[in-house]
């Protein structure tokens, strides 16, 4: 597939965290995956071996990759082989996100989020219905 | 299925995105195949009532 060139005059970015990527230029394949386990507890006391990813099979379960149901023939013609962007402002990029200026072939982005709320009240008494 | 794309010229003055998180991506360029997968879980049993299980929390898994 014939690729266009991207022209960016100005890119503002404050912070790209450890697992994120700022790619300027073409690439072949981009794979980004983030597993997020968000725990809100009434009292912020957390112990060392709590809330491990391995405890939840949701982070291990394989995901069915959606695919086209029939063969698709894509014809792309670029009248103008340039993409012009004057100003890009991306202050924060976190949790394996990708800022990509250029073209690529395959882009796979995967996110797994689990939220847990922990209230420190005693268990609700199950009333016996007679 | 035949899918034909004819790209004219594209000139954008400004793109401003507050923040990107959880495998989000900002792409300025062409892409042939995009696969997006997401798994979101917050079922009723994600609400825990009761004390912190100290016994299990302190013993290494």
From TrEMBL, chain A:
Which is a Pfam family this sequence falls into?
Answer: GerPE
Tell me the InterPro entries matching this sequence: Spore_germ_GerPE
What is the protein name stated in its UniProt record? Spore germination protein GerPE
TrEMBL record, chain B:
What's the superkingdom here? Bacteria
| The protein, known as | Spore gernimation protein
């Amino acid at each position: 597939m014939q690729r266009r060139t991207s022209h960016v005059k100005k890119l503002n970015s404050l912070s790209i965290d450890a697992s994120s990527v700022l790619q300027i230029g073409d690439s072949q394949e981009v794979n980004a995956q983030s597993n997020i386990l968000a725990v809100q507890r009434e009292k912020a006391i957390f112990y060392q071996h709590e809330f491990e990813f391995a405890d939840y099979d949701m982070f291990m379960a394989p995901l069915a990759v959606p695919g086209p149901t029939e063969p698709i023939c894509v014809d792309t013609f670029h009248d103008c082989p340039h993409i012009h962007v004057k100003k890009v402002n991306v202050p924060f990029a976190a949790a394996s996100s990708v800022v990509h200026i250029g073209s690529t072939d395959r882009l796979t982005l995967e996110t797994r989020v689990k939220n847990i709320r922990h209230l420190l009240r005693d268990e609700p008494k199950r009333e016996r219905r007679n | 299925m035949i899918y034909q794309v004819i790209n004219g010229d594209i000139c954008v003055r400004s793109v401003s995105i507050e923040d990107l998180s959880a495998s989000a991506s900002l792409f300025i360029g062409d892409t042939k195949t995009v696969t997006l997968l997401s798994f979101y879980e917050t079922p009723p049993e994600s609400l825990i009532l009761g004390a912190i299980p100290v016994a299990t929390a302190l013993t290494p898994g």
